[in-house]
């Protein structure tokens, strides 16, 4: 290994540690690595923007159930473009490893090209760990540490800066040589003690309306099999936040849909009396502080690998720092010794709530007077036509809301959204990562016309790498959630910077070499999807939807505009006025 330079040593280390795919965008700082990577058996997937590169690493990690996703980007603007996917992976706890180049160490404070600021300091708040490699012989052990940090405890992104003089420098004898056994696969997963397990089982068995809310922690554990065994032994129903769709099959009799169904059931007097959060954090996706989803008087059991998440918005009656899979294995075994009452009425109430919002639009005309398709019926037709094994990457605001009413995840890690950061433009990257992780499996991006504009150049990436990803644009000629929110708060005729042109996104895709179709009749959606998913090439369907029909989720995110002594604001709690 002493004949290697830093970039080649970096490639050899990643290959030794089991990495097979690296998402990248060229920069001269990286050439020593980029040239060496194929020689070490690493497949390079180069994107057209560093943000997509990072989101692809994120999507790869999600789709593989927690294998580290690796992104390699250049210095300066390449790095700053990569900050957004770092922050997104940090907030969603996705194990990713970001490398960035940098000017030579010896040229610090000389105003060099793409230098003059501290990349490590800038990355640190958005990563679990950020470090600058200053000696070429330290490359192997620092990469090994980075992967261990990214994948253990609460997963998340890590960042390594490799200055160009380290990247190109010859390697002396190295410190701490690595092996394929990185030391994390054999780790014992934290499980509850027998007494805590008994406490949880006692609480759940005595509850009238218990519910399990599964989050991303059940995907990365992974927990599908032990969770299924436990709910079948106990009869306790499961709901999922957007990170965990697919952890239980959508047609399982005890699966009751998204977590919002619990809030809707509560509105009709059927509130849960015990809620178990399993790898799901208290916050936006579990109703925030409102108590609308998790009632204040309900007992709360919370399982998380990060003690800092326990009791974030309200105290947990049973706070448990543990691995979700290990916990459900114990609970499934212990459930046999408890008496479980029939929960069919409670399960039925949740499933009724799950379909309540759909009932608001089911009878609406599929075709509007504006020669556009009602977004509810457009999303329904899309969901019914997609191949059942399709991996879904959802991107946007209202586009996701309409699609989520109908889409079904084909398995754990196969339903991806823009998460806590609320970042638009993640769709292509997540889909590219999933397509690389699961070659031969259909992948689709469901996006709005606002979101698709952020990284529309990635049709080129899909074409070059022969990734037959289907992109479906719900085109309502505007920023749907934004304009509906302005209407709710300010009334009609007060919209500002929320309009877009009716762009032919299908033709844009065709310009990059993909297939494309424009669709303005609901009956044309299914055959177009079948053509796209059997074509073997990247495709874009530009579906024209009614721009004036808003989703109820926007109203719920604005709050009560008529509340006295409060100011309604989008997305957050109203501001009290004394």
What does this structure look like?
The chain has about 575 residues and is an alpha/beta fold. It folds into three domains: about 5-170, 3-Layer(aba) Sandwich (Rossmann fold), CATH 3.40.50.970; about 195-355, Rossmann fold, CATH 3.40.50.1220; about 360-555, Rossmann fold. It is built from 23 helices and 20 strands. The strands form four sheets. The protein has a six-stranded parallel beta sheet, sandwiched between helices. The chain has a six-stranded parallel beta sheet with strand order 9-8-7-10-11-12, sandwiched between helices. Helix 22 links the parallel strand 17 (about 515-520) and strand 18 (about 540-545). Helix 10 (about 225-235) packs parallel to helix 12 (about 325-335) and helix 11 (about 260-265) crosses helix 13 (about 345-355). The model has no long low-confidence stretch (mean pLDDT about 95).
């Amino acid at each position: 290994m002493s004949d290697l330079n830093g970039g080649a040593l970096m490639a050899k280390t990643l290959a030794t540690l089991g990495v097979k795919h690296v998402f990248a965008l060229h920069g001269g700082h990286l050439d020593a690595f980029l040239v060496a990577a194929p020689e070490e058996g690493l497949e390079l997937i180069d994107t057209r923007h560093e943000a997509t590169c990072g989101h692809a690493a994120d999507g790869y990690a999600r789709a593989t159930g927690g294998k580290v996703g690796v992104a390699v980007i250049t210095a300066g603007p390449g790095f700053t473009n990569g900050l957004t996917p770092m922050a997104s992976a940090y907030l969603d706890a996705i194990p990713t490893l970001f490398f960035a180049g940098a000017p030579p160490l010896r040229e610090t404070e000389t105003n060099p090209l793409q230098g003059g600021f501290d990349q490590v300091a800038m990355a640190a708040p958005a990563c679990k760990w950020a470090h600058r490699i200053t000696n070429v012989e330290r490359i192997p052990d620092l990469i090994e540490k980075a992967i261990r940090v990214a994948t253990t405890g609460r997963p998340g992104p890590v960042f390594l800066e490799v200055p160009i003089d380290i990247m190109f420098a010859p390697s002396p004898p190295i410190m701490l040589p690595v092996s394929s056994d990185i030391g994390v696969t054999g780790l014992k997963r934290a499980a509850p003690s027998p007494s805590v397990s008994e406490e949880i089982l006692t609480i759940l068995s005595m509850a009238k309306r218990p519910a399990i809310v599964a989050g991303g922690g059940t995907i990365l554990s992974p927990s599908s099999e032990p969770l299924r065994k436990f709910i079948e032994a106990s009869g306790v129903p499961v709901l999922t936040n957007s990170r965990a769709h697919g952890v239980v099959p959508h047609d399982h009799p005890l699966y009751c849909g998204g977590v919002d169904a619990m809030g809707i059931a509560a509105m009709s007097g059927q509130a849960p009396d015990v809620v178990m959060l399993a790898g799901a954090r208290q916050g936006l996706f579990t109703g925030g502080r409102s108590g609308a989803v998790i009632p204040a008087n309900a007992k709360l059991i919370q399982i998380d690998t990060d003690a800092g998440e326990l009791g974030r918005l309200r105290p947990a009656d049973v706070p448990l720092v543990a691995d979700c899979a290990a916990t459900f294995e114990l609970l499934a075994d212990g459930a046999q010794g408890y008496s479980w009452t029939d929960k069919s009425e409670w399960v039925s109430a949740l499933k009724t709530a799950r379909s309540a919002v759909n009932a608001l639009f089911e009878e609406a005309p599929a075709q509007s007077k504006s020669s556009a398709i009602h977004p509810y019926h457009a999303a329904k037709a899309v969901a019914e036509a997609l191949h059942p094994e399709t991996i879904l990457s959802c991107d946007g605001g209202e586009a996701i809301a309409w699609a989520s009413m109908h889409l079904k995840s084909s398995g754990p890690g196969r339903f991806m959204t823009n998460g806590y950061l609320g970042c638009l433009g993640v769709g292509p990257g997540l889909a590219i990562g999933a397509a690389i992780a699961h070659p031969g499996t259909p992948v689709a991006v469901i996006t709005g016309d606002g979101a698709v504009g952020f990284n529309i150049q990635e049709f080129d990436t899909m074409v070059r790498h022969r990734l037959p990803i289907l992109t479906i644009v719900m085109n309502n000629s505007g920023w749907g959630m934004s304009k509906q929110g302005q209407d709710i708060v300010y009334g009609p005729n007060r919209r500002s910077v929320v309009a877009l042109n009716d762009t032919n996104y299908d033709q844009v895709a065709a310009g990059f070499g993909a297939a494309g179709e424009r669709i303005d009749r609901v009956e044309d959606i299914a055959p177009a999807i079948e053509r796209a998913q059997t074509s073997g090439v990247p495709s874009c369907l530009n579906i024209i939807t009614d721009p004036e029909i808003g989703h109820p989720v926007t109203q719920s995110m604005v709050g009560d505009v008529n509340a006295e002594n409060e100011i309604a604001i989008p997305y957050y709690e109203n501001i009290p006025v004394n």
